[in-house]
Model the fold of this input.
Amino acid sequence: MTNPPNSNPTSGVTGLPGTQPPQAANLPGAQPPQAADPSSTQSLQDTSQSDTQPSQATNLPGTQPPQAADSAGQFPMRLQKYLARAGVASRRGSENLMTAGQVTVNGQVVKELGYKITPGIDQVRVNDVLVHPADLPTYLMLHKPAGYLTTMDDPQGRPTVRQLIPFEQKPGLFPVGRLDNDTTGLLLFMTDGELAHRLLHPRRHVPKRYRVIADGQLQQEQLDQLRQGIVLNDGITLPAIIELGAVSRKPLTAREKIRLNVDKTFSPWQTELYCTITEGRKRQVKRMFSAIGHPVIELSRIAFGPLELADLLQGSWRNLSDSEVQQLKDAVD
Done:
């Protein structure tokens, strides 16, 4: 069969070898296709680039781009970790400073707990004081006397433990935990926020040993209660290690001697005990003994983890040895 005159057997087929696509006819009144205006093409390219290129992230909390190590090899770290390492406070205390709006990075208040900074590049300030990470952490032990608050600042001007330690030489020192105003004994201070955080963490169960003078004469049943756990308003305590000491007569005042004659419930006796707990609840030892009807008369902490108070004089402090610091770290690893 032959093709009709003027017909094209490849009409409508494109891309075949040896064939050309059909050319548009230049019909009367029709304009030939115009080339694109170079300025128009450039404008489209500019628009395309602006739509596809990532915008520059601002240094705002929660909007930080991934950060690589700087030229000095410093990697970003969380701001609260940096503050803890600098000895400003424990990690928990550093988080409280941040959420209170007391921390700035490069002049900007940062409250976001996930915020990261690059040491040596970003300027960190707490209450407008520039923070420098401590090169070598400081660790010391204080034999706290009664009558001092475990705080570094008291708005009412009462005596604080800050007055008993070399805070001016080591301004980053802070207490690890606390002792009540009338409680004496071993109180640790350090500029190592990471270690302090681990020592105080409830999951670590770091033991604290106390010498207790309790009112009255404890019976075996009450000693067993302490060893098994005492129900307090914030839950039952973990079992305590109780060692019974001496029972002695209390040094009675004139008023107490009169009371002894008229109040049959008043006891002239007091009991010495050694109590080891592995929790850190507020006023826990005092609440435990009050719950069994024998309030604490005197309380002194004589050991924290592997460290003992020994013969350190009341009101005195000493630096921890490298071996003692390692013992603390081993206790929480």
In short: The longest strand covers residues 241-249. Residues 230 and 237 are 5 Å apart (CA to CA).
